[in-house]
Specification:
Order of helices and strands: EEHEEHHHEEEHEHEHEHHEHHHEE
Organism: Ruegeria spongiae
Number of domains: 2
CATH architecture of the largest domain: Alpha-Beta Barrel
Largest sheet: 6 strands, parallel
Protein name: Uroporphyrinogen decarboxylase (URO-D) domain-containing protein
Radius of gyration: 22 Å
Pfam family, one: URO-D
Shape: globular
Strand content: 15-25%
CATH class of the largest domain: Alpha Beta
Distance between the termini: 18 Å
Helix content: 40-55%
Number of strands: 13
């Protein structure tokens, strides 16, 4: 059971919720559901480092929270047949998410450069909700939440969602987020179409898989490099990186070569590719930079993850110095 009261089962290393504490609750009970215990520790990098600091989501997003507590099918039914329950649960989720983010922000010694908000709004072939239901129930609460975040601190906001969400990209743009991390493998989430809907100031995060670029460099797959290079130029401004988790040193090496490939482009190079298509000489120059990259030796012991710290509204300090072995909630 997790801190929300949801029971999970494991099958072949994969976890899925199977018991939802509010599945059969009436609307009057939803607001009294206890808030989850927030994490009592936080992993923070070297405070002296000048590297960009990113606050990962400390909790589920709005829709994910409602699905976990209510059962996804039941909640979608509520949206059409029992809007009082749907609204009550969404309000509970909004306040819980706000508290989780504010607690994390208050615990940090300085505000992060980027705050990530994640909520999977769709599956590979479509949205969980209709566009109308998203705009009626989810969008106004996202406006409230992001407004609170901006009032709290000046960090950039990155919005993540998996699934086929192309029909609401305009709405996400209207939220005024600074970065978007979307699933470009999902149905109809096409990079040129998404880029056209966004302002030139909105940054796309990992629209092109850096690990795939690194793999194409090492296999000398020129056709793939031409296509990936075109996508990079189309998506600018963007941040290059791996789409999936890094699980092996080989994955990390491919991702680093991919990033080196992207960094080899000048602004003029990208403009030429965007206007003319793949330019052989430019791609070959980037390929050479990636192939000749001096890779660091990678092992589990060599990777620094920063200090494990205890967190709470009163501040941040080494977990080893907690009085009497206690933790903060």
């Amino acid at each position: 059971m997790d801190s929300y009261g949801v029971l999970w089962m494991e099958t072949d290393g994969n976890f899925a919720p199977y018991d939802h504490p509010l599945e059969h609750a009436g609307w009057e009970k939803l607001s009294r559901h206890p808030r989850p215990d927030l994490p009592s520790q936080i992993q923070f990098p070297d405070p002296k480092s000048t590297a960009t600091t990113i606050l990962d989501p400390p909790c589920y997003g709005l829709l994910d929270t409602c699905f976990m507590l209510r059962n996804g099918w039941q909640f979608m039914l509520d949206l059409t047949e029992n809007y009082r329950v749907a609204n009550a649960l969404l309000d509970w989720a909004l306040e819980t998410i706000t508290e989780a983010y504010f607690t994390a922000l208050d615990a940090l010694p300085k505000q992060p450069d980027i705050i990530v908000y994640g909520d999977d709004l769709g599956f590979e072939s479509g949205m969980y909700l209709s566009d109308l239901d998203f705009r009626t129930f989810i969008f106004p609460r996202l406006q409230t939440f992001f407004g609170r975040l901006r009032k709290k601190c000046g960090s950039l906001i990155c919005f993540h969602s998996c699934g086929a969400v192309s029909s609401i990209v305009d709405d996400i743009q209207e939220l005024g987020v600074d970065m978007l991390n979307l699933d470009f493998y999902a149905k109809n989430v096409l990079l040129p179409d998404v880029r056209k809907k966004l302002s030139r100031e909105t940054i796309l995060h990992t629209p092109v898989n850096a690990a795939a670029i690194g793999g194409a460099v090492m296999s000398n797959n020129k056709a793939s490099l031409a296509l990936l290079t075109t996508d990079i130029a189309t998506s600018m401004p963007c941040i290059g990186g791996p789409v999936d988790n890094i699980s092996t040193p080989e994955d990390a090496a491919d991702a680093m070569r991919g990033v080196a490939f992207i960094r080899a482009f000048s602004n003029d190079d990208l403009r030429q590719i965007r206007d003319l298509g793949p330019v052989k000489s430019i791609i070959e120059q980037a390929t050479k930079a990636a192939f000749n990259l001096d890779l660091p030796s990678i092992s589990g012991d060599a990777i620094s993850f920063g200090d494990l710290m205890a967190s709470g509204r009163t501040g941040l300090f080494p977990a080893s110095s907690l009085p009497d072995g206690k933790t903060l909630n």
